[in-house]
Amino acid sequence: MPTRNLKVLMFGWEFPPHNSGGLGVACQELVLALRHQKIDIDFVLPRRVDCRSDGCNFLFADAPGGTLSVKPVDSILSPYQGKKSYKEMLRSILSGNPGTLSYGDDLMDEVMRYAAAAKKIVSDADFDVIHAHDWLSLPAGLAAKKISGKPLVFHVHATEYDRVGAEGADKRICDVEKLGLAACDRIIAVSEYTKQRVMQVYGAREEKIRVVPNAVNVRNFQANANLEPLKKQGAKIVLFVGRLTFQKGPDYFLRAAKIVSTVEKNVYFVVSGSGDMERWLIAESARLGIADRFVFTGFLRGNDLVRTYKMADLYVMPSVSDPFGLTALEAMSCGTPMLVSRQTGASQMLAHCLKVDFWDVELMASKIIALLRYGELGRSMAQNASKEVLKFDWEESARRCISVYREVLTA
Amino acid sequence: MPAICLYLHCHQPFRLKKYSVFDIGSGKPYFDDEQNGAILRRVAEKSYLPTNRLLLDLIRQTRGKFMVSMSISGVLLEQLEKNCPEAIKSIKDLVDTGCCELVSETYYHSLASLYSREEFVQQVGMQNRTLKRLFGCKPNFIRNTELVYNNDIAKLAGELGFRGILAEGWDEILGWRSPNYLYKAKDSELLLLVRNYRLSDDIGFRFSNRAWKEWPLTAEKFVGWVNLQNIAGNEPILNLFMDYETFGEHHWKDSGIFDFLEAFCWQALKNPLNSFTTPSLIAKNLKPAGELDFWRLVSWADTERDLSAWTGNQMQKSALDKTYSLEQSIKQTGNLRLADDWRKLQTSDHFYYMCTKWFSDGDVHKYFNPYESPYESFIAFMNIYNDLVLRVKSHNSLKVEEI
Asked: What chain B residue is nearest to A262 in terms of C-alpha separation?
């Protein structure tokens, strides 16, 4: 008797090019790798506009392996919106598209509305396991579990404490995360760091947690470098890539840059990303008198991002709290030496990079300078890192997810 | 009738302080006295003192039938004098029995033999003077740092008046020949003792490895292997060369390593065909069985027995080249403090910490490594190097002004 493919109902996030950060990339790569390993996937995601007819269903129609059907739900949910900016976004969408969208003005209402919409999908879908990514899709995942009685795997990419820090954490969001961690059947943490965090902060039970690291598709970062005029003049480039929010620590990058600029004259700091701190960062760089050393590129993707990585002499990831830090793998794929904050999952998993506590800006600056001065350092590091990054393979991550599915099915 | 030549090598570097680019030019000292003192006291407690006590007991109880030889780097002797004088005393006691031979080397445990003949000669001279001052002896044999050896180094050692040298008994060089004979260096009268790495590493590396099929290694079993040599062709010597810290540090006391050493001594002497010996006694009693052509550099490290642990990557090469490029300008200053700092930077450990071939030889390399990564060690080293360059420059410009 031929065995049927295992079927997963996944509550995920938008794929590139509609994504606004690493979560969309992670979802896409994981889904590709799962399908490659003969897993069927019903992929539910929030969409800002109705796109049921846009051909998403055929996104990977030619690929061999498991099937994928995408089930978009109208929603303005995005994995990276704090409550305040959510309201702002809501206002702009409401004013820009009157009539097409009608939502409550509270984030929790929207999450619950999304969960309710997801229920409809659940009732006509046939699946074995539910897989939800991060808290916004948790209520939907829990509803699906309740209706279907199927096991729920909760994939933690970041917690509320990572995103906004303990002081800014929204109690209601924390409650959802706590509830979800307790109610789900298995927790997938993207790093040992995240595993420890959900255990400490939320009291999640260790025996339920499996660590499945993120990975990188090295092929996506193998375009040719384009040397910019700055480089031609012998300038050094220090790069930041990430959302410009508290979690990613761009302010620490700025403060380290200030120290570096006092001793190293021909260095430029490139900030690639967008977010709620962008204006503040620009203003602050001017206040510190280093605005002329800063280049804000906005959010980059594809070849533009690859070129920027390759152009850089050093990639700095100063995250305040980052469960994984996918950009580290991207920089490694591009052969760019790295300095990463110790408060990241990546720093625990990677050997061939420099490490620093995000708050120690003087040490951060001293390591940046050392890297700029001692050419062999970056060359040796990048050479070894380009081998090390091959260990982070989405196929392997998918295999680990599948073994979690099998666990919950036999439990 | 193997005469067992047990040789122990003993060394601790002056580890560097955390030194940031902002410390360059600040006058901050280079060496981490606090950490070095703490490590030294710990290793002395766990290894040097109990091992010396046991060795002395064995020499006395066997009435001199048990013998041992050792080399102790000058930088370790310097630290012991300062932090653990009782260890110096315990070595002196061993030497005074006449059953413990000291072997020379470079004072700074450096790779000078590869970079500067003049520097190598000076560092060996310093070591010999130190051995004379502390223990009243003049060594006949020499070992180079990490047993780094080739025909050129043999020539150098011969010119310095040594009777013989120690090296690794590596198959690639030995071919069909056994390490259990006395040899001489190619085109030279310098005697050559090569390490039997299989039996040496059974004790040095594998003793406490529970995954090893011979674990637990008993003295009866080990001496059984030694006795095989009597049957297999009557090879005259057995060179067991290993780190001194094998006893009590690489293998902790509770692994039974001290009991093993003691039992090994008695068990070996049970067979009248066995004895213990030292390099100079071998030189006196045996004629070299042939010549060994060390056409390439061989060390006793890692599975490659090469220099890749010190010179394998760009950081290491660059740091070494830059360090030795300072030789003439340092010596021109005539400043002993500068010269001593510069020479302590030559200690091979600093370059070993920069080794990136972690994933195959990881365990050994992480051992005693005070850095989070090889990259951090390179940064600290280069920052200190740049500070030293500044000091040399300012010293020279001061001199010009004085004139």
From this structure: B22
